[in-house]
């Protein structure tokens, strides 16, 4: 393990993860005079300033906590506001891979909803990439804007309050991601916006929508290599001598349909 890099210290204004245990994980902004409170005790946030990330700190009760730099996963699961159905990590990972999201790419998305997919995508577009997110509802666009700002990703994303079905001004895009109730009505938009060979990826929560999307893609004629998949993720409970799947699991999120523009 390379330990040569100087550990980064916590500064005023930082957003930190206070990790007490698996169920007690909190995202807080370090501000002068601010006190963090939990059922395990309180902590004066001034005490964190100057300590390296990864440090152990003691709450007022003597219970230990860790101060960690939050990953995007922590922000999405603990700090983001949810006003819509959101895309879960298991699906986010596959969407990013299949859409070939990478630095410098230009991507279209609709609708932005709470900005979960937008954040996962935007965080992989730097340097030079851009996400154009169309959202029909102004209030949803505002929630997404607030969430993206928290993650420091707003500069990568252009949020447009508009109906994606009416077309978009962007052209020659590298990928198009649709998470909306009637993606089959946005196929012309996707076709006109995408570069030939680029992927269209659609996320829908019901099999009825999968059928309508795939039938519409075939009829459209501008897409090929059409697939519909569902991903299942099972967490494991690992105890020495007793390793088995957890009793609980997220049973359903949605289906992913993907195709290529010809
Ligand atoms: C399920 S949410 C998207 C959630 C988002 N993918 C996330 O991970 O947070 C669907 C969004 O699509 C928006 N929407 C529905 N029809 C639309 C359209 N024609 N054009 C743009 N946005 C649309 C809705 O207002 C809603 O915010």
Quick structural gist:
The protein has 262 residues and is of the alpha/beta class. It has two domains: 56 residues, Vcp-like ATPase, Chain A, domain 2, CATH 3.10.330; 187 residues, 3-Layer(aba) Sandwich (Rossmann fold). Helix content is 23%, strand content 32%.
List keywords for this structure.
Vcp-like ATPase, Chain A, domain 2, Rossmann fold, alpha/beta, binds S-adenosylmethionine, 4-stranded antiparallel sheet, 7-stranded mixed sheet, 262 residues, 2 domains, globular
Tell me about this structure.
- Helices cover 23% and strands 32% of the residues.
- It is an alpha/beta fold.
- It folds into two domains: 15-70, Vcp-like ATPase, Chain A, domain 2 (Roll), CATH 3.10.330; 75-261, Rossmann fold (3-Layer(aba) Sandwich).
- The strands form four sheets. It has a seven-stranded mixed β-sheet with strand order 9-8-7-10-11-15-12, with helices on both faces. It has a four-stranded antiparallel β-sheet with strand order 2-1-6-5, covered by helices on one side.
- The termini are far apart.
- S-adenosylmethionine binds at residues 84-87, 110-111, 113-117, 134-137, 140, 163-165, 179-181.
- S-adenosylmethionine (SAM) is lined by residues 84-87, 110-111, 113-117, 134-137, 140, 163-165, 179-181.
